[in-house]
Amino acid sequence: MAPVTSGDNQSKQRIPRDTVRKSLISLIKWKRKQVSDQKEPISGDVDDFIYLLLTLKKIPNKDFTKSPNKIPIPHSLQTSPEFSRSCLIIDDRPKPNSQKLTVEFADKKIKSLGIPISKILKLSKLKSDYRSFESKMELLNSFDIFLADRRVIDMLPGILGKVFYKNKRKIPVPVELKRDGDWKEEIEMGFCCSLLWLSKGTCSVVKVGKFEGMEVEEIVDNVVAAVGGVVEVVPKKWVGVKSFHLKFFDSLALPIYQRKEDLIRQNGITKVF
To answer: CDD domains given for it (predicted)?
Structure first.
């Protein structure tokens, strides 16, 4: 379970758990009706994630939108690592005064540490073998989660393209893969976090729950923790936040927090959390 941070405590003060719970119950009720009304089973990869929608007061500076931020959450959105299909992208570029990282070295290390990684993929092979749309789609659908050496994270949007980054559902999680580093801790943290990639606009999303396989209180825990984690990495922290909503990919967004000034202006509400 992720440790409680000052951001968590502030999010609890500003957004009561009961507010989060009520919104979640409404969303889940809506989703159940959608599923029950579905006449034919949906084929393909179904998005049943619950998202925390962040709206900022202003468009963030480019420095804030270059790389994804890991947001710790207490309840993982992934199937247990040993049952997940996972792909680890390593940086095999030659480095001055350092040995090149090879698949053989990485494979030996993760096996010795008991890390359940399904496939190790070199950056060079990723660039050479996955150029076409079809090959990228095949790669995307072959794994549940992707992790990548932090040193190559900024290169991946140009290599993987819109197939991975348009809906941002399987963006590779950045991990530190120094030869003598703690790979086990880094990769385990990668399995137990969500990602926030600030957009070039004012709205961004981070996954906080799943329709299937999670209890409401687990998702509430994740929302509270995610709000705290998000606020820690956005420009000006709470001052820069305009609102938080919860939603499914295809649902309306239900508000759980809005700036006092906006509430007064829009609805004449004088009491806010």
So the answer is: Ribosomal_L1
